[in-house]
Amino acid sequence: MMHMYRRSVPLKLICTLAGLILSLPAAAEQFRVRKTTVFTLPASEAKNVGINEAVAVQLPQDLTFIQGIEIDIKIPQIIASWQDSVAWTLFDAITPAPASDRIDYSGSHIELGTLPTRLSWSCIIPLRKDHTIASSPYTYTLDRVPDISARTLLIRFQQAMKGTPEEFGNAVMQVTIKPVLIDQGRLRLSLAGPHKQLEPYTLFVDGTAYSNSERGIFLDPGTHTVSIVSEAYRNEVRTVHIEQAKNCDVAITLRGIAPTVQIIYPDTAAAYFDDQPVTVKTPFVAEEGEHTVRFVIGNYETVRTVNVVKGRSYTIALSVDASITEEE
Fold first, then answer.
1. What are the chain's domains?
2. Which tens digits make up the pLDDT trace of 254-266?
3. Please, which pLDDT band fits residue 26 given cuts at 50, 70 and 90?
């Protein structure tokens, strides 16, 4: 059975006061709560919070992928039955740092309101001005961005009317707080070259030029093509997969444009490059132009020529075939 509405603080008056507070410069306010419940993101487990208590949200130092926080409250029937009976106030610049055993605080008003006459309520607090959080008729989204330099926000709940039943003061709300993630992921590209100092290059992602900054490149989730073009290095192409709110780390070793030659041959053979014995089977740098490669196995000798061009790699391998002939 729903109770008759008895409002010692009319909703219109609360909204008027909220508008007045928001229009005035933020000033520190001293207040006391009965208890403080601390949430540390990104954990989002539900916790019980009573009237005249506070919820403190401790934000992580790295907010790269977090653009807001969402507060979901399950409202008990006894609170939902009394319109405008519980007010909430958001504070930033909280001092001292909130703790479960602390009840006295000082902070700056950001916004206030009352819990609705329904069994659930959601509120989104944006943490950056360039957020992409979509508005929804089922969620209350703040227009202002609080000061998060201290990485702490606090929401205070207060009884806003008299004449409620005795059990009203013992009502418990179930509160869940979780981060609202950005819609993109980040590509972090690490480049190394044959020399300590990198030569100029151009980075393309899906055909668009980007600057490879320490902050990384933010991309929509999905598959992307990364290309590096330079007059000092060989072109490099990689395919990367970006996931929402995650880092994609890619390391690329740039190769110089000097041509390389690799000669592969069995241990029973000898190889010569321009009549010089080949002592390694790994790639080596060669000058541009025509070169001669000679292989010797016992009394057998074969010679090949190769025209080496800048920016190319060449592999020359000696293969020995065996043929089988069957006759009747």
1. 11-181 (2.60.120), 185-253 (2.60.40.1120), 260-317 (no CATH)
2. 988 888 899 999 8
3. low
